[in-house]
Amino acid sequence: MENMALVLQACAGLILFFALAWLFSENRKQVNFKAALMGLGIQIALAIIVTKFSIVRSVFLGIGDGVMALKDATVAGTSFVFGYLGGGDAPYHAKEGANSFIFAFQALPMVIVISAIAMLLFHWKVLPIIVKAFSGAFQKTLGIGGALGVCAAAKIFLGQTEAPLLVRPYLGKFTRSELFTVMTAGMATTSISIMVVYAMILEGAVPNPIAQILTASIISVPAAITISRILIPQVGEDTSGHLVVPYQFSGSMEAVTQGTSDGMRLYINILAMLIVFLAIVALANTLLALLPNIGGEPMSLQLLLGYLLAPLAWFLGIPWHEAVPAGALLGKKTILNEIVAFVGLAALPKGLLSVKSSIIMTYALAGFANLSSIGIQIGGIGTMVPERKQEIISLGLKALIAGTIASCMSGAIIGILYSFG
Q1: What is the spatial distance between Cα 266 and Cα 340, in angstroms, rounded to a whole number?
Q2: C-alpha neighbours within 13 Å on the C-beta side of residue 83
Q3: Tell me: the pLDDT tens digits for 220-279?
Q4: Domain boundaries in the chain?
Q5: Residue 283 contacts by C-beta under 8 Å, 6 or more apart in sequence?
Q6: What is the model's pTM?
Q7: Sequence-ordered alpha helix ranges (H) in 53-167
């Protein structure tokens, strides 16, 4: 009985997300409801294929095994460079129950390794072939132009400023709706370099984390296209175009070198953001603790955000008694970033969220929809098409909201499917 009630909650959430998108649409009369329902159907179909078909599940589990192999390979490098700090043998006897895991030296360096491998796969034409396959599928099923299809498909694997590079010559010709879809897809999904970091953080907190996160990135693309086209309907012809390779390497070694350099910049950026944002959370909690307690608990940023966003978490299909901690995670993701939110999810006391709720939250959090991403998109995409920078600035907050809705839709759908076994 409770299971069915949670399914109905999630279904109500999907209706609510569509209603909110339509309510704030720039042109409600131009909204193509048939295309919107088609987009939702495709998202659900993708989720069913990925989660319910044993062959596909086996592929994703194989990817998980591959990531673990990469983890072991990375430790070989970090233990040589950092010694026992990077995972090598410790020169002392560790105290029983002590945690010797150091995130900066043992988990985060995988960003550099994955970045180098991704660039190598780009040079070997493997990644472009995969992107073209997804692009063709999105064009045929969602009725979008070729250029937007390439960018949307690339967003499954690349970052929110890297994916638009593949269609840079067409960005200036994009309609307002297409440009907004590019920004929304950037907010709603993640990148392959960051996926492994999420997986490392969530190891032990949710089952098969890399498979869950990769699935989230795939099924959130049609949601991003659907919601963005309700908020800003497409008017006029779709922009045709094809993949434009932005990287030209003389050989595999140059590709690996470039990927390593890009990964190192990302590594430093993530470290800096984590230090600053976690310090901000601690500082905010110190100040909020001066206020009166709520329900016997000291006031904190997590508690405040939890109460504010608990209704949103409830509409994802999460029981009300778990909605406050889930809402706090959604708030952290939006105000700070998803890495801080995933750290919070992994650190929750056992039993505070059920396994199902933890999986739902993994999908809802797996995206770049946060305040800092607005600045990243303005700086990245705005540099590619400087003549449209003001338009990108004006669309930033709306893209954040659309990306959040798309990720939440993925969480709600997975919750529904999980309820039926």
Answers
A1: 16
A2: 3
A3: 999 999 999 999 999 888 888 788 878 789 999 999 999 999 889 888 988 888 888 888
A4: 2-83+103-244+270-419
A5: none
A6: 0.88
A7: 54-82, 103-106, 110-123, 126-142, 146-154
